[in-house]
């Protein structure tokens, strides 16, 4: 019934989040945090390469992994058009096994909050830990939900270069404050000369975490030297974050 970051979602993503577009300063932040890396870096939930490509162009050795074949196809195309050929893997964050160990693993822009099940979240963090070299780092962005009004509907229209258009209806269908998650239904419809030619329905679950809660989770996995900052600003009190706070931690 539901798609997962499929063709229409990828088209909208590519249109609204082009390569190199910084969201709140995230690309600049990650370039700075990773500039000392000499070994491999893994971007988890790499999407279509908005972050990956600037990192590669800065001379960093970065692989990518994502669960969506459509997103990965777009990422490969974007990389090839720029003469880049990173290793890109299709797989679930909670159960992947790759041939390399990494000096750093990053998951920017709140994508970790899309891991729907809490046990899957723990499994994903364990996978990250297992794929790091001793002393390697994870850097993970977490986000807070923008709205918790169940039933709220928003609509958007995106004009494509081809002359087609995609409409997006975003309906918040479930809010669970006890277990800190929301569920939205995203309905994508593609139109050509007034006729509907393609549609997709995506179920989007978003989980969020308390700062102290996530620190305890990281400690449980075995991470040390855990630091949290807010909105891509060093030493900012994370309790004053608008939407984004970033954890950095080290594998022993």
Helices and strands, with pairings:
Elements: H1 7-16, H2 26-34, E1 40-44, H3 52-57, E2 61-66, H4 69-80, E3 88-90, E4 102-107, H5 118-130, E5 132-143, E6 153-159, E7 165-176, E8 181-192, E9 195-207, H6 211-221, E10 223-230, E11 244-251
Parallel strand pairs: 1-2, 1-4, 2-3, 4-5
Antiparallel strand pairs: 5-11, 6-7, 7-8, 8-9, 10-11
In short:
One of its GO terms (biological process) is methylation. 24% of the residues lie in helices and 37% in strands.
Compute the CA-based radius of gyration.
18 Å
The backbone outline, from C-alpha atoms, is globular
Largest sheet: 7 strands, mixed
Beta-strand residue percentage: 35-45%
Count of helical regions:
6
Structural class: alpha/beta
Q: On the 0-100 scale, what is the average pLDDT?
A: 93
Q: Provide the low-confidence segments as ranges.
A: none
What is the CA-CA span between the terminal residues? 43 Å
The ordered H/E elements are HHEHEHEEHEEEEEHEE
Strand order of the largest sheet: 3-2-1-4-5-11-10
How many extended strands?
11
Describe the structure.
The structure is a single chain. It contains six helices and eleven strands. Strand 7 (165-176) and strand 8 (181-192) form a beta hairpin. It has helices spanning 7-16, 26-34, 52-57, 69-80, 118-130, 211-221; strands spanning 40-44, 61-66, 88-90, 102-107, 132-143, 153-159, 165-176, 181-192, 195-207, 223-230, 244-251. The strands form two sheets. Strands 3-2-1-4-5-11-10 form a seven-stranded mixed beta sheet, with helices on both faces. Strands 6-7-8-9 form a four-stranded antiparallel beta sheet, with helices on one face. With 252 residues, the chain is of the alpha/beta class. It comes from Paenibacillus motobuensis. Keywords: Methyltransferase, Transferase. This is Class I SAM-dependent methyltransferase. It holds the Pfam family Methyltransf_25. GO terms for molecular function: methyltransferase activity.
